[in-house]
Design goal:
- With 162 residues, this protein is α+β, with helices and mostly antiparallel strands.
- Helix content is 23%, strand content 41%.
- The protein has helices at residues 2-15, 49-66, 89-94; strands at 24-32, 36-43, 74-79, 99-104, 110-118, 122-132, 139-149, 153-158.
- The longest helix is centred in the middle third of the chain and has 18 residues, at 49-66.
- 15% of the residues are buried.
């Protein structure tokens, strides 16, 4: 199973070098036991239906030409779901300015705020916290920017607001 996903990954890396597909990148390939392959893509711009169709046909051509699967297989190419965790720096970069929920490894807390910057070794999230000001009874909201190293992120999801 692993061998097929590696072959498909290599094919996609070649395809992504073409100008039409250069903004796309691979998130994950899943090979399911029922001869179904799921390919999840993301993009610096947008993953269009036509991109998915062309990528699907490209992969089908190679699968069939090389006999990598039985005749009755299914391949699904789609964008990564909106509720899926961010996995790559490239995904963080395109989501600067959006609300995120970051689950931290070290204290198992969730940090909810706005992704304001992406650095080489982590991200910066801005959020509001109620703090007591010395000499006052009431708490005030204070804007805090927190640096979160990638190695302390369990997962990050885009917070969807309706």
């Amino acid at each position: 199973m692993v061998v097929l996903t590696e072959k498909l990954s290599s094919l996609l890396e070649l395809k992504f070098q073409e100008e039409e597909f250069s903004h796309l990148f691979l998130i994950e390939i899943k090979q399911l036991p029922n001869d179904t392959i799921q390919v999840f893509l993301d993009s610096d711009k947008a993953v269009l239906f036509e991109h998915c169709v062309k990528i699907s046909r490209y992969l089908e051509e190679h699968i069939e030409m090389n006999g990598w699967m039985s005749e009755k297989y299914t391949i699904d190419v789609s964008s990564a779901g909106i509720g899926e965790p961010l996995k790559f720096k490239r995904q963080y970069q395109k989501n600067i300015g959006r609300k995120v929920s970051v689950e931290l490894k070290d204290d198992h807390k969730h940090l909810k705020g706005v992704l304001v910057e992406v650095k080489e070794d982590g991200i910066i999230v801005e959020y509001e916290e109620k703090v007591r000001i010395e000499g006052r009874k009431k708490k005030q909201l204070k804007c805090i920017k927190k640096v979160v190293p990638y190695n302390n992120i369990k997962n990050t999801k885009i917070a969807i607001s309706f």
